[in-house]
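Q: Structure tokens for this one, please.
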Amino acid sequence: MGNRNISLKEIVSVIEPKESLIASLAIQKPDSTNFQGYEAYSQDKWLTLLTMLNTLKFEPQYYRTVGDQVIHFQQIFHECAMEDPYLTAQCLVYSRCVSDGMRTVTQLGASLLPRYTSGQPWMHTFFSNWNKKASTGGIVFRADDMSRILKFYLATNGSNKLPMSLKKAFKKNLEQLDQYSILKYKNRLIDVINLTHPHPYLSRATRVNIDGNDTPVLSSVMKGLKASADTWEVAQSEAGEIVAQAKREGKVSDDQAQEILRNAKLDNWKGLLKDQKLGMLAALRNVRSILSLNPDNETLEMLILLIKNTVLIREGKIMPFQFDLAIESIKELKPSSQTRMVIEALQVSYEESIPNLKEILSGNNLVMLDCSGSMMQPMASIQAKSKMGTSCFDKAKVVAATIAKATNADVIQFGSRSKFADWNPGENVFTIASSFECSMGGTDLAGAWKFAAKSGRKYDRVFIISDNECNIGKTYKQYSKFIEEVSNPYVYSIDLAGYGSNAIAGPKVRYYFGYGYALFDDLEKNEFNPGFHLDKVRKIIL
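A: Here is the predicted structure, written as tokens:
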């Protein structure tokens, strides 16, 4: 046998290893299945936790009920908290206060954490207010976070006895709140106040004058006295009550009442804008109402300046889809110079708030946009607020359009088949996004890779925007083949559903989740550090 295969050994010995084949061989085979039972990659529990904390809204999904989502989240949360409760706490604070700002899922997680952290001194910091200027602190990003965490805790723990860490921290948080925050959220905070007993005279909130009496703000809330924050809700509600009372007293006719109320509401909006009391999110949600009142030039200019304030957009964690919904709501109005000016401001503000991706993402880029049926599942809570409804695809197409326009990327739309999208670089992001509207059946990511390989185009980066529930083809095989035959790009898998598995894996695959600015902020650094997300989480100090 010693003389066998001598020629073969000589031939093989002089062949140099091919870089593309080495890269292809480095792609691991799927080790799990997705919700439909098709091959997928299991996800590290910490990455799964982060994905859930940044995507789950506890609304019906295509493959999972709300109950299933809650059970899955509690299972993953338990595994992580049992292994490292401090890192779990860091994940919660990072997700609520630094990353995409998801509320319900982080509030639920915060309510579950105390059962794993008995005696831990850092829990006092965990339940404290987040300092937005210093970027330090705990899970309470907004005052009403406390009420929601408290409700979840009482519901999931079956006891009215609060952990001392939570009770002391919430007491101190309440004493640190200013007058505006206490009065704005007073109806939601009353249970927190009654259970934690903050000291009215230690409060930084100033006193309010009620019926001629100078009263501490916290005392006014505790006693149920009539004191309100200067918010748009209060102002417009009061205007409606005053006009309704005038009608009942026979002072004004219906037509007069409508005109008086219109002028009063417009004056309120103008005053709130002038006093800088109207928040960015409130402006986006009410932009249609403001425009329907036919505002004067001064009011319109102040509204546009607010909309274009990119600092406030980032500080308030305003999501791109909220700009999209604002634009769509304005389109329901009769076209005018005012509506066109505001739409333009919304579009400019969106695009200017995104970093210069062309500099960050040099070279050739490809976006693979999942257009399968499961991506069209409406999100109930957003649909109730808008006639359009919002789905994973509504999110996905705006992200795809943003990357495409910013980097002149190719876009492959895939479902049961694949095709290159024909988009116009002269259009704005939202018009480009609307051109992607379609439903293409199943989810064949393997077919998208095969289609890309057939084109022969080499890419430095590929962005996959999907819910990761592939049910056609073998993605692993086609991805490996693309690397072997065409090129070995960085791959960014953007998960918009958080089902808990990955459709693709490899040394150059990076995972993102959700729909916020973290994606655009992190891309450059992430190419050089695959553990970038957890590195950022570990920098949170409690």
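A few notes: The longest helix spans residues 254-274. Residues 495 and 513 are 5 Å apart (CA to CA).
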